[in-house]
Amino acid sequence: MSRITSTRLADSRELIYFDDPGTPERTPGSLVDHRELPSRGEPGEVRYDALSGDWVAVAAHRQARTHLPPADQCPICPTTPANPSEIPAPDYDVVVFENRFPSLGPAVGDIPPLPAPGLSGHGVKGAAYGRCEVVAFTPQHTGSFAELGETRARTVIEAWAQRTEALSALPGIRQVFPFENRGADIGVTLHHPHGQIYAYPYVTPRAAQLGAVARKYYDDVDAKETLGASLLKAERDDGSRMVLEATHFSAYVPFAARWPLEIHLVPHRSVPDLAALTGEERDELSHVYLDLLKRLDSLYPTPMPYISAWHQAPLDPGLRPAGQLHLQLTSPRRAADKLKYLAGSEAAMGAFINDTTPEAVAERLRNVAAPASAETLEGTRA
Ligand SMILES: [Zn+2]
Description:
Layout: E1 3-8, E2 14-19, E3 45-49, E4 54-58, E5 94-98, E6 125-127, E7 131-136, H1 150-168, E8 175-182, E9 194-200, H2 205-220, H3 227-238, E10 242-245, E11 249-252, E12 261-267, H4 279-298, E13 306-311, E14 326-331, E15 333-335, E16 338-339, H5 344-349, H6 358-367
Antiparallel strand pairs: 1-2, 2-5, 3-4, 3-6, 5-7, 7-9, 8-9, 8-13, 10-11, 11-12, 12-14, 13-14, 15-16
Helix pairs in contact: 1-4
Bound molecules: zinc ion.
């Protein structure tokens, strides 16, 4: 088990160390933030879009946030005398902390109920309650998740699961979303390998859409199986879009993939979220997730930009039973030097046009030679 140590930063934000198994207990000195920070602001707004029925977060205060700082001023490197960073400790394995410039929060609570369709919803707004957390995968400033060793990847999974459980229990939270944006092409604002977790005060538009379809199916089959589980079985029976099959997880390119590269990684057992995975499933996940990332990086001479998105069942009791945990891994890269941009059809209409066939992409991903595991970023903590 990884060792979990919680503390507070100078402005009272929560910070949690997740140290690899077997690492020594943290010294009190690594828990104290010696910086002077201004107190935290009020949340932004959520506004209801009466035309679509979606909530939109308005976070104008985030314009001041850190953007691609030089390496010696990285806010998620361990603290040194010259760089008093967000992490008070001189070293860590994995660390999670509340974002200093959150689009949701810092306060939590209930936003207004979803208005009925029509003009009565126009102008409805509330405080952008919720929580935005940063997950630093390694103390080393360069590299990527794919270069972590399995032990460190397993600690990240433990952090995702623990945060999913803790954030789901906060007042007003309706959905917890761990994700990673990788590469400047995706709009990453910090190079240090890290991901984020958003805890939303509403069910996001995409989760609401997927959730409604999943719920309909679940009712139609008398609650015998989730749509995600049935689809996984169908893909495994077909085989032409499978990327890998392990004991507890399998990965495939979806039949109607939207992106030039899109992979779904799904647990064989129906579970709503990462917190519901057993220890054995988490062990295997650390292996298969690294395997997938290495395959992605092997396709082209330079590292693959990607979005790694954990779809977890919303906390809404109407949607949750039908939900199935899965990872959606997508990249806009369609050739070594070409990116797909979301243009008119996709951005305005949500109508995707994919220039690659899912079967050909799956075949490439199945057959790509995963690079011999290079030196990992795991290191050892002093
Ligand atoms: Zn750094």
